Amino acid sequence: MTFNKNYSFTKVLFLSIMALVFSSGLFAAKTLDIKNITKMLDEVKIAKEHKNINSMKKHFLSRTSVSLTEQNIEETNTKRLSFNEYKRYLSRYWRDVQSNLIEVKERKIDIADNGKSALVKSTFVQTVEIKGVKIETTIYETTGISLIKGKIYINYFSSRKMLNTSLRVN
Q1: Exposed e or buried b per residue across 33-63, where buried means at least 16 C-beta atoms within 10 angstroms of its C-beta
Q2: Is the CA virtual torsion 45, 48, 50, 55 positive or negative?
Q3: pTM, entire model
Q4: What average pLDDT values come out for the chain (170 residues) when binned by 10 residues?
Q5: Alpha carbon distance 82, 62 (integer Å)
Q6: Are 136 and 125 in contact (CB under 8 A)?
Q7: Is position 154 within any domain?
Q8: Which of 21, 28, 103, 129 has most Cβ atoms within 10 angstroms of its Cβ?
Q9: CATH number of the domain where residue 63 is located
Q10: Pairing of strands 76-81, 117-130
Q11: Whose CA is closest to 110, among 82, 72, 145, 77?
């Protein structure tokens, strides 16, 4: 590739980078809508299914508040965690998980009038396999969403897992 004397490789590289930086701002979200919220939440769901914390964490603010409730016939246990504690919790939990499938059953999205925040209520059925035993749970999640500098983040996450009565052994 040859360059005109007036354009050095460095100048061309600099102009290319500036064009990329400028154009990335054009694709940033201006307001929240059902499409961009659903896309982000689906990315988080896929990251959870693949037990990929790194893909998941890019959608959470470091200050995200997490509330996890597990409920079965005998007891209800609620944990309130920081996002870092939540990542450690998932790492320990996922160590024994052989397969993880999450099916969205229902999702209701309420977007604030200013388009900068939203509250999402979802119902999932999760089937995990641990040591050859498939466990099915129904999960009710409430997710707080914020639009910050054109990016969509989760700033609040509450999950309530209810063990279903169906257990299958492979």
Answers
A1: eeebbeebbeebbebbeebebeebbebbeee
A2: positive
A3: 0.77
A4: 56 61 56 94 94 92 92 84 92 91 95 95 93 90 95 94 59
A5: 8
A6: yes
A7: yes
A8: 129
A9: 3.10.450.50
A10: unpaired
A11: 145
